[in-house]
Write a structure and sequence with these properties.
7-stranded mixed sheet; alpha/beta
Length: 283
């Protein structure tokens, strides 16, 4: 029997989050290799088996029931097929994400397509899919029409559509919202205990956009806790301390100041989770 108090969340950088209740395990996104900026800019990328092995071992992840991919850019999806191949479970994503799986040699039985409103059950976890918008400045829109065989250029990892995931459990619920954008009214009355809030590139947006983002995502869901995600420099290995994205990609100081102001005004605590740190977001 599941102990409701044992739901734990482990942060693995960017927007990769592992949820476990002692019986079942769900991973949101799959990005552990984190190739360097130089390789991303001028070369081709592929899963790094050693980094994947190290990260999974350090996080204590030995099996999975489901891996859900928010969109098919490399920093969300590149390692997902390799993780499912090792740990089992099913990789859920868009048709583009499934083409990443096919290019990596993942069998069709280990993949399933999802879309807006779909529901995935993994043990006591029930995950509802919400389709949304990528954060402003999407460099690689579009779809992946053929199996994508690594190594590949990052521009070949087109987004394929963007999803957020409402994860419900007998002990509560949370929303994992990786992309810092919104669809007005999408989350109205979707009350959650915790919100994993994507803030990547948010510091480069106008104050009006930031406030609208808060209204349509945070005010709509009324969480008791906010955990920012997709703020860290994902060109750095998880063996190194997390740092914000470079200033040419984002203005993290503005994002942090905005979060502090909103937290003070609403009373909702904001907690930056460290890599491999385990918290109880539903407690």
């Amino acid at each position: 029997m599941v102990d409701d108090a044992q739901v734990r969340a482990t942060f693995l950088g960017t927007s990769t989050v592992y949820l476990n209740d002692g019986v079942s395990g769900v991973l949101i996104d799959g990005f552990l290799s984190r190739p360097s900026l130089l390789r991303v800019a001028f070369g081709r990328v592929a899963p790094n088996p050693e980094r994947v092995t190290h990260a999974l071992s350090k996080a204590g992840i030995s099996r999975l029931d489901a891996l859900l991919v928010a969109h098919s850019h490399y920093d969300h999806a590149m390692d997902a097929p390799e993780i499912v191949r090792r740990l089992g479970g099913v990789m859920y994503g868009s048709s583009s994400t499934l083409n990443i799986g096919r290019g990596a040699g993942l069998g069709e039985a280990s993949m399933a397509i999802i879309g807006d409103g779909d529901v995935v059950t993994a043990g006591a976890f029930t995950v509802r899919v919400f389709e949304g918008e990528h954060s402003p400045g999407n460099r690689f829109p579009g779809t992946i029409e053929q199996p994508l065989v690594p190594p590949a250029k990052v521009g070949e990892y087109r987004d394929g559509g963007c999803y957020s995931f409402h994860v419900a459990h007998p002990s509560g619920s949370l929303l994992i919202h990786p992309s810092a954008n919104f669809v007005p009214g999408k989350f109205d009355d979707l009350n959650v205990d915790a919100l994993y809030l994507g803030v990547g590139a948010l510091g480069a947006q106008s104050e009006q956009f930031q406030d609208e983002y808060w209204r349509h995502v945070v005010d709509a869901t009324r969480p008791s806790l906010i955990v920012p995600v997709h703020w860290d420099n994902f060109f750095r290995s998880l063996d190194r301390a997390l740092r914000p994205l470079p200033s040419f990609m984002d203005k993290f100081d503005r994002t942090r100041a905005w979060l502090d102001r909103q937290s003070a005004a609403t009373g909702i605590p904001v907690r930056f989770q460290q890599p491999f740190e385990i918290i109880s977001p539903l407690a």
